[in-house]
Amino acid sequence: MTTRLRTDTDSSTPSRFLDAPRWLLAPVPLFFLQPILGRIGEHVAKSRPELFTRLGHHAGKRFVIDPIDLPFVLLLIPDVKKTQLTAHRRYEDLRPVARIAGTFLNLLDMIAGSLDGDALFFNRQLRIVGDVEAVVALRNALDDCEGSVVDTIVSAFGPLSGPVAMAVTALRAMRTDRRHG
Hints:
Elements: H1 13-25, H2 34-47, H3 49-55, E1 63-67, E2 73-77, E3 84-88, E4 98-102, H4 104-112, H5 117-122, E5 126-130, H6 132-143, H7 149-155, H8 161-180
Parallel strand pairs: 1-4
Antiparallel strand pairs: 1-2, 2-3, 4-5
Helix pairs in contact: 2-7, 3-6
């Protein structure tokens, strides 16, 4: 009798649900996302200035965050005075110093501190292209923060923080169940 481990490519209801963001967000014009992402960037900059201090000379550099299971990439320019977080189509030439690519949930869990970026990298679940020193500085800045940066991001939604937190928790729980199921 042979048992087979489940993989991300198995077709099941949970995996189809986890793939839903790609097809739900594909037709959404990116200009609808820009105010939300802008608010998140501003809120993190005001709430967590220590992140930018820790980045040192890497603050203000252009990072592409590539959630490979979403239909767009994010451009992050961390700067305490004017942090920019914007969504772009994959074909746009954004001229980043580095590109960090992984699944949305791996990236989310990494900034939440529940997944180790080094382990993801060495297991080939996280890809880094470009200025590795800048990426390590960004990772160290996130790791050195007290509390969860994800909680700070969720709090940017003001009165909608509760439902957003519940949605994030549900997504992360489904992924955990999927790993152990």
